[in-house]
């Protein structure tokens, strides 16, 4: 939750308030991990639990592995590995840290679930390392990264937000073999930010799925706002807009119940005659004689 006084008070007063955040790359994390896990499970992948809070989703042929590992002792919470042959080193991997917006993880698993259902090829042409076809968000610029000694796509609002090809990236925890490095997306600082590392063999379509999710909108409850989101809005890198309240499922039932308790008669059906009041019966005259 954000420490910004204005939004902290709003979260306390209106915790149900929903906000649209554009672009989603500044939306921050949510607790709903099922959004990213469910696409593969619905496509037939098996869900395994290690009993410590970590989950592993594995396709029936063993070629797709998704690790949701909040208890692994590092900030890398999501690990996606795609194999050509089960138990062999993966062909490509994508790893995402714990504060990555869930929309980005969901975009990757949705793509893989589609391929799993159709039986399509899981790999594909890798991204262009010469940057000729690499995605570039609006208001981001391609420049020379002096620290990495290579090109980078950098936010015009926040220079620490960047997309770069790191040819020196080692395998390490990424379980990668035979790769030249990693595409890395780094947003924010080490406290509120997040990072994605995709191996150089990652298909072009996956990087574009990541880019599409980064640039699209995201919805967050006001109590889920992070300082990253508020900071981006302050400098003009993100736009926040309140969403109208959605109808509650009980609203229809409440309306029906109110009508049932109404003392007014129901309106007549279309085309039917209006009800008429009964005619009064005149009193019968007394024809008896008068007493004298």
Tell me what the structure shows.
With 292 residues, the chain is of the alpha+beta class. Helix content is 23%, strand content 23%. The chain contains 6 helices and 13 strands. The strands form 2 sheets. The protein has a 10-stranded antiparallel sheet with strand order 2-3-4-5-6-11-10-9-8-7, with helices on one face. A 3-stranded antiparallel sheet has the order 12-1-13, covered by helices on one side. Mean pLDDT is 79; it is low at 170-174.
Offer a quick outline of the entry.
This protein has 292 residues and is an alpha+beta fold.
Present the secondary structure layout.
Elements: H1 5-13, E1 18-22, H2 34-42, E2 46-49, E3 55-58, E4 64-68, E5 76-82, E6 92-97, H3 102-118, E7 140-145, E8 150-155, E9 162-166, E10 182-187, E11 194-199, H4 204-215, E12 218-221, H5 227-234, E13 239-242, H6 251-261
Antiparallel strand pairs: 1-12, 1-13, 2-3, 3-4, 4-5, 5-6, 6-11, 7-8, 8-9, 9-10, 10-11
Helix pairs in contact: 2-3, 3-4
Task: Describe the global form.
Answer: globular
H/E topology pattern: HEHEEEEEHEEEEEHEHEH
Strand residue content: 15-25%
**What does the radius of gyration come to?**
31 Å
Number of strands: 13
Mean pLDDT score, rounded?
Answer: 79
Low-confidence stretches: 170-174
Q: What helical percentage do the residues reach?
A: 10-25%
Order of the strands making up the biggest sheet: 2-3-4-5-6-11-10-9-8-7
Task: Name the features.
292 residues; 6 helices; alpha+beta
